[in-house]
Amino acid sequence: MNVTMKNYMPAVNEHLEKDIELRELYAFDLNGYLVVEDAIDPDVLEALTRKVDEIEAEIGMTVSGIPSGDEKPNAKNYRRNNIIFEDPAFLAAAMSPKVLAKVANFIKYPKIKSTWLDFKAQGGGIGFHSNHTPYTPVDAYLCNNYQIHCNLVTVCYALCDIPLDGAALTVIPGSHKSNFPLPSDEEQKAFQIQVPMKKGSALIFTHDMNHGSFNELPYTRRTLFTSFSTGFSANTLGDDTLYDPLFEQAADNTWEKYFLRRPKGDRDTYPQPQHRITEEPGLGQLRK
What we know:
The chain is an alpha+beta fold and 288 residues long. The chain has helices at 3-8, 22-31, 42-59, 88-94, 97-106, 185-188, 244-249, 255-259, and strands at residues 33-36, 77-81, 110-120, 125-129, 141-144, 147-150, 152-158, 169-171, 193-195, 202-206, 211-214, 221-230.
């Protein structure tokens, strides 16, 4: 790092690379995604399941959707933003050390950007979107000098089993590096693959990769999403102070506090903790 950049940016923790393997870096750079099995602590997953059951009952979500009245079709999709504030289990899941350790190797100065809970009834889905070309700065992906630089990383936690055929996220591997626009919708099918997940696992992907999903399962597809950006990028679902309450609660010199810091324009001066993410006591666990 040159002298000018030292004045702008804090030192990067040299231990970060110890929490990711070369094959994982290769796979993420090649395909644009990485699956982390058993990403959520078992106690956290149990607490999440209870809370998500409550929310599902509260909104009236069924396999057919949320009833909308006699003259309106059932709502097939439901999204609750900023879910990290609703229950400690959501914060614990968002701070999974297995996930954060990978994210910190894909974004040089990472911070949490947004969180949401997603329900998709049978027939619900999200259209396909993203591709490296045309260029979108907020999503941009680059790998230079053996360092991956993602401007936006999304993490999808499976809160139910998501099998290969039925509701798995459909992606175009490598599209995060494509130098050509997407072909037609019909032609895209030749390049698409599905990524199955078991309950409790996480799918980490660069948002520059083309992706979408459709639920054909005979049950509601339940997922928790978090996204991460560089420290210079504003929060998506709130202003710069969005995570201040959680930041204040977090202990000093922890990765939890670091990921919850405010964005800071072109000068991210908040110091990174110098211990390994996977060695931080209590990270990703429920507070006793």
